[in-house]
Amino acid sequence: xxxxxxxxxxxxxxxxxxxxxxxxxxxxxxxxxxxxxxxxxxxxxxxxxxxxxxxxxxxxxxxxxxxxxxxxxxxxxxxxxxxxxxxxxxxxxxxxxxxxxxxxxxxxxxxxxxxxxxxxxxxxxxxxxxxxxxxxxxxxxxxxxxxxxxxxxxxxxxxxxxxxxxxxxxxxxxxxxxxxxxxxxxxxxxxxxxxxxxxxxxxxxxxxxxxxxxxxxxxxxxxxxxxxxxxxxxxxxxxxxxxxxxxxxxxxxxxxxxxxxxxxxxxxxxxxxxxxxxxxxxxxxxxxxxxxxxxxxxxxxxxxxxxxxxxxxxxxxxxxxxxxxxxxxxxxxxxxxxxxxxxxxxxxxxxxxxxxxxxxxxxxxxxxxxxxxxxxxxxxxxxxxxxxxxxxxxxxxxxxxxxxxxxxxxxxxxxxxxxxxxxxxxxxxxxxxxxxxxxxxxxxxxxxxxxxxxxxxxxxxxxxxxxxxxxxxxxxxxxxxxxxx
Length: 485
Known about the structure:
Layout lengths: L1 H7 L4 H19 L9 H21 L4 H20 L6 H15 L12 H15 L3 H21 L4 H20 L3 H19 L6 H20 L3 H21 L4 H20 L3 H19 L6 H20 L3 H21 L4 H20 L3 H21 L4 H21 L7 H27 L8 H16 L5
Helix pairs in contact: 2-3, 2-4, 3-4, 4-5, 5-6, 6-7, 7-8, 8-9, 9-10, 10-11, 10-12, 11-12, 12-13, 13-14, 14-15, 14-16, 15-16, 16-17, 16-18, 17-18, 18-19, 19-20
């Protein structure tokens, strides 16, 4: 019906508005990535392109009509969203930029509570996310700040409008995230505190609203993360405890809610990470075990869910590493081998997925660490060398993946440790000692080169900053050491 009307030509502004809206809704049902759809992304792209063509024509015919102009902005947004979902990035920035320009022009044209008033905040937030995913954190920060300013004006204009207040809290949180990624911890803390205060005001008197409590728990987690990096450990623990308690409360009040249970599992995972970084591996192991147990129970209801099985494999890898740091070698090796088995099973079904490959890589690296602890230096070097080779192959497929680069950098550092220990083996000849020192320095420099590059690009996690100086000291020591030292 919409096609027939469009083909006949549109001479009426109201009809043009309805037609654009119809194509946008059809595209949404066909394959918009953020809505329930039937999976027809190709059909959705055709519908969105048709909406855009009609909207462009209508905008030229009726340039002073605000509904027509907004239709054009929404059509650009829909095309951009679908291109992103399909991995086609060429024209995404252009479409989002046009959406933002139109939204900014129209921001005062609609009534104070009209949905269009949210468009500037949404448009600049989407641009910020695009730049952030591209690694351009400076541009991302600029767009997130524009989104924040638009949302702040709305929240101040309509202080009783809950959606506008929550939009503002989301912008505050995004600014916190971007400051955190840039290593600006005090700035991140400020934004997360503001977001948390906003969410607390929203939750007051509405504790039965699970979504409100859930988002409040997220800001506790973010605050804990930043306070941990600032080495304010007691304050960080208080935030992580609050984060976990809210997730426990949600499960208690909604015992059949699968999302609440999964959220609780994630909270245990974050608590495990916290305990790992504060040097409490036994507590970390307990938290990671809780994470795995919850997800395994949930996976019985959806046995074919690869996402769940991937998370379980990651949980066993973390559990194995925590047990290793607790000197529970048998339990560590059992968990790490389980992680590898789960990752291999996933790869049989989905051989191109990078996450299980990374999990397997990290598990093998941890097994190399276990062999070092046992003093099995030759076996450790063989295992770590094989993991390093696998890591290089994975980097070729996933160039620019920071997590993979950090994992390979860590493996190189562990290889350096193993060869440095081999150089100290009693009875070794000067040639053997020199060879192991040379190899150790090579691996340390490889690790250092990666960390320095990521740091220059502004994407090195703050927790890794100290490793740069540590590696420089070790390289200097080995490079200047005399034989017999």
